[in-house]
Amino acid sequence: MHGGMASGTQTAGDVVPDEVVPDGKEQAGGPLLRLADGVVPLVIADRPVLFIEATQRLNALNGSAGMLVALLADGIGLADLRHELHETMGMSAGEVDTLVVAWSAQRVMAADFGPSDAQGHLVRLRAGGRDILVHFPEEAWGRELAAAYAHLPALDAVGAGAAEIDSAARVTVEAMGQGPDELAGIFDEQAGTLAARDAAAPVLRGAIVDLVLEQPGYVALHAACLVSPQGPDSGAVLLIGAPGAGKSTLATMAAVSAGPLGLAGDDIVLFDPRSGLVMGVPLPLTVKSGSWDRLAAVLPGLAALPPVLRADGQWLRYAPLPSPVAPAWQRVAAIVDLRREDGRAAGLVPQSPIDCLGRLLEEGFVREGRCTAAQMRGLARMVDNADTCTLHYAEAEAALPLIEALLA
Q1: Which of 170, 185, 213 is at the close of a domain?
Q2: What was the pLDDT predicted at 11?
């Protein structure tokens, strides 16, 4: 990557333009790029450095990166940035876009963009005390991106009531240019992140998750949430476990089997310590490549969804929730700690509530950074009033009847 942080960067002379930007600036418009909030340019021992508050990193800059910082300090449009770096550094538009995406992901750069009132597809996600509206563009890639959110109620982007939209948080996906290799912008009310279009799905999901987690007072639990369609009085079953334990796979199979369970979410569950109740967050299913074949039979449209390479190197597909249920606060009937072990017969073993609480805390999240005494008391009561157990299993099909029986 040309012109990045000092570590591993090249010099301007190393760049061979693969795409010539014509004289004069590109078509006006697009986002205004700037240094992200909390990014502070410094000079130490006559060398330019950046302090990035979001990552608590101090990064030394090479010459080309220093030029980019100078351009971002006053704000600059994407088209103008492409033109300036081509004229001064010989960088192609594609190289500039690669740099923009990398710095956006590193929280160095943010984008300000007034989302337009253009037609598009608008869906509503309810999480805790917040409605989040997600606006997708009309282009084919926008419809492809929206396919994973088909389980959410749709709103007419033009006909939705002003009060309904104004009271909700909003994430807007915008096309940055017209070609298939152009960028996508994902914007909330504060700022935006730019990404390659084929990598926009995880960035969009991350922007939604940030809005979910910034709500004060709740504890976010890493769990899948299965509920009875008979209503919240039946209680919810939470599936917890280490990454790879099979939470999403088992929850999906349970939701599409003949059993009585609906799927409220496969990843994040909000706990309200004031009421002692939980609500699953209805994000799209995150189906990792190792589960594609197993779930193909229960999710017939899975193979048609685009594969996405996440930043951690995982190939996955995002899919709509099967048998989704309307978001509602539920009491917790059971918490199941999944332990997948080759050759192990499926069986439920009682788990100490203390051990269960410890497992929940391992991956729990609160906006304030640590649980308060009130939140801990609420979690302890919730766990103490639930059936807590460990499910040892090798094959998901053998584990399903045991999970379904918990709400029978």
Answers
A1: 213
A2: 29
- Total count of domains within the chain: 3
Q: Are 258 and 354 members of one domain?
A: yes
Q: Any residues with CB less than 8 A from the CB of 18 and at least 6 apart, and which? A: 92, 94, 95
For residue 268, being part of any structural domain is answered with: yes
Please check whether residue 317 is in contact with residue 201, taking contact to mean a CB–CB distance below 8 angstroms: no
**Which CATH number covers residue 100?**
3.90.930.60
With respect to residue 94, please indicate whether it lies within any of the assigned structural domains. yes
Q: Residue 179: its pLDDT value, please? A: 65
Identify the CA nearest to 69 among candidates 36, 112, 28, 25.
Answer: 36
Backbone angles phi, psi at 210, to 5 degrees: -60, -40
Indicate if the pLDDT at residue 76 is higher than 60: yes
Same-domain check for residues 227 and 357? yes
Specify whether 107 is located in the same domain as 142. Answer: no
Range of the domain at 17: 12-112
pLDDT over 90 percentage in the chain: 48
Whether 41 and 89 share a structural domain: yes
- The beta-carbon contacts of 118-122 under 8 Å, at least 24 apart in sequence, are 119/157, 119/158, 120/157, 121/146, 121/154, 121/157, 122/154, 122/155, 122/156, 122/157, 122/160
Mean pLDDT over 336-342 rounds to 94
Higher pLDDT, 229 or 355: 355
pTM over 0.90? The answer is no
Q: Could you give the CA distance from residue 12 to residue 17 in angstroms, rounded to a whole number?
A: 11
